[in-house]
Fold:
Amino acid sequence: MVFTNEKDYLGYLESLAGLPEGFRAAAAETSFFPKERPVEKPLPLRLALVLLDKPSAAFGALFTRNRFPGAPVLIGRERLKEGAVRGVLINNKISNVCAPRGVEDAEEVLGALAEPLGLRANAFFPASTGIIGWSLPVKEMKGALPGLCAGLHRGSCLDAARAIMTTDAYPKVHSVPVGEGRILGFAKGAGMIEPNLATMLVFLLTDIDIGQEALRQSLSRAAERTFNCMSVDSDQSTSDTVIALSSGTKPSVAPEVFEAALEEVCAKLAHSIVRNGEGVSHVMRLSVSGAKSFAEARDLAKAVVNSPLVKTAVYGNDPNVGRIVSAIGDWAGNSGIEMNGKNLLVRLGEETIFENGAFALEAAKEKLLSAYLQDAAMDPQNKKFPPHEKCVDIFVQMKDGDASAVVYGADLSREYVTENADYRS
Amino acid sequence: MVFTNEKDYLGYLESLAGLPEGFRAAAAETSFFPKERPVEKPLPLRLALVLLDKPSAAFGALFTRNRFPGAPVLIGRERLKEGAVRGVLINNKISNVCAPRGVEDAEEVLGALAEPLGLRANAFFPASTGIIGWSLPVKEMKGALPGLCAGLHRGSCLDAARAIMTTDAYPKVHSVPVGEGRILGFAKGAGMIEPNLATMLVFLLTDIDIGQEALRQSLSRAAERTFNCMSVDSDQSTSDTVIALSSGTKPSVAPEVFEAALEEVCAKLAHSIVRNGEGVSHVMRLSVSGAKSFAEARDLAKAVVNSPLVKTAVYGNDPNVGRIVSAIGDWAGNSGIEMNGKNLLVRLGEETIFENGAFALEAAKEKLLSAYLQDAAMDPQNKKFPPHEKCVDIFVQMKDGDASAVVYGADLSREYVTENADYRS
Structure:
């Protein structure tokens, strides 16, 4: 889908964002003075709530592998052991990671949310994104809860998807119909997006009836092929979280049908997250085939999309293709993997750039490749909506096996640096 | 050493750059039209030559682990089996990596250099840096050789150190006296500098008498603690090379004395390479202690200095210290290494930012840290000489063992992106 203005794009998202049966959602804003930093004006913090009509045992979650996870991740891992949950409370601005009393603070806020509903804190997953190390403004968050709950509605999740944004330029929403119901997903994530779920928060809501174990297995496999196959800047955050909830109000479908639909939603969200990454002007799609294993194919692809020299060349529309081959060789050397250049073929778009152990370059081809890169560029300073869905396609073909992987990555722009050099100001 | 202008800095380098006894050096320039890219004007290419007065068996070399090494690396590995060599021919602009006939081209140029001296090509190491994938302009290089040889002199290596620069802003030269002689080193390297020797060319010349095996062992150990403990942008190039040559005209010294002097020269060159990295405005020094092994300490330190989010925060003088701890946790999680936050202490400069499993942040401390980062900044657009030798010191203390490592890294600036987005233009 291509949009020429933000309004049309938001209208399109609204059409995708309708809540499945059995769910309500809401968003609200508050503000606070952090104790960790002098500020002149209070900082805004937004809250989003997803509430199931009834407690559900059909829920699952995946979390970052970072060894210093945020309090919401620590709590979320415990919640997986609960018999049933009612929903998720999400905040932006502060990720509540390794702050003193971080777990207690999060539980206190959830307790205040649960009490009027006759529930306890353990009925809710917490999810937080934003600055690491700071403490949650508990008092201000609790003060905003009555207004948040008063705003619960059965419309779309677009307000919630907007509320959880940090440096995201636009909300990420996708949905697909399945059986008599649907799967809706919304997400945030901008920088810091790598494999293994980086500061990425993803919420998947469905009304399709499904067992807990089936949901968790499908979620795990779908994430492996989507969220774990993308990278904006190779950093894996302390807070990455994917949560799936089912209200179970619609008839079940065949497991493979459900999983295919779930993977489709996850894949679209993953693509949106990369395309909307901080300062991204090109989305790269690395397709590796002929590898010994999926893991090897994926790791090779990630090494290329994470190479700063590849990323900056693509940003500059400069077909400096030597850097692609160098990144492959660097990865293989550091991984102790033997690799014969004679068995390697590399294409950029339609053009073969390396085969039979040598580069295949000439002036005419360079012009074509420059034009190809330019055509796939977006203006990284002005993207309240994606101007197109073009990718810079890089194909790497080996002859070592029959495994393959597709990884989405991003270029590295001046705007990325600017945004991250002054994220908190 | 601090310099307020380029002239004083070059004067200082000149004072360090005197060739040891038994060596001559020269530099020359030529130009060419590449066949791989349309250009309006011929591109400049510089040559540098280091020539021993007599063939020497006391030589050694280390090369990149990249699986697609340049032709000079392939040839250099063979040269290590020669009984003796006479010198090194270096060029910039084209790295001669995976170009069709790359090895033949390099050997042809070396043969043309060797013939008038009554030698064969195998008397010389080749070394090339620059664009990957392009072919050497053999005819133009051969045409420049008579002038190059005519310029051989016994003065300083500063002209050679300048000739081999690519995006380097200033030449890198260091030397230390040892026994009755000295060890002189000169290097190039700007972006793409990581562990395992990235597009870094280093030449170490000494007149101290030393055996081949002793020289090679000392070189390997010194490089492990210096060139392999630095990172500008995590890319390891196809061409990284360190070559050491001894003329043996001065009496030998104790092995440990020689190795200490060699490591000192390597350490100073490594620091210079990072400080002069593409678009670098802060040099980071990561000191890890209490680790189980040197490799673990070094890998943790590299994970922090290579994190784009840490690098951009330091560039922005933003003490967003959560990103440091997140990078440590990310590395540990991905490496399968258990880590207890209670046993971790992290300091930025003099300030403790994390201990006992939680951040230790407050507004007053943040102001101090901002000022600390600002004080260590250099203007990345104007650095024909290093304005100071200050580092951003990050200390990571664990309680898992008694191994430690010190790694030098660089921030990530808008200037880095600009330079690498358009390196070839």
